[in-house]
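User: I'm putting together notes for a lab meeting next week and I want to include a structural view of one of the chains we've been expressing. I don't have a solved structure, so I'd like a prediction I can at least talk through. The sequence is below, exactly as it appears in our construct file.
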Amino acid sequence: FRTRDGKFAKVEILSYYLGAPENPDAFADQSRYYTFNYVYQPNEGVTEFN
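Assistant: Thanks for the context. Below is the predicted structure for the 50-residue chain, given as structure tokens.
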């Protein structure tokens, strides 16, 4: 993602279900509970994440 101020962030979505079950069941598990990791690059114009 590019932020409003021209910096960048990277997002990894790990799960869409409450509790991030290992084997989600779309009929039984509550959805719309995102579990995610993110990395923010604070240096303007730099797009690399090390």
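A couple of points you could mention at the meeting. The chain is about 0% helix and 40% strand. The first strand starts at residue 8 and ends at 17.

User: Perfect, that's what I needed.
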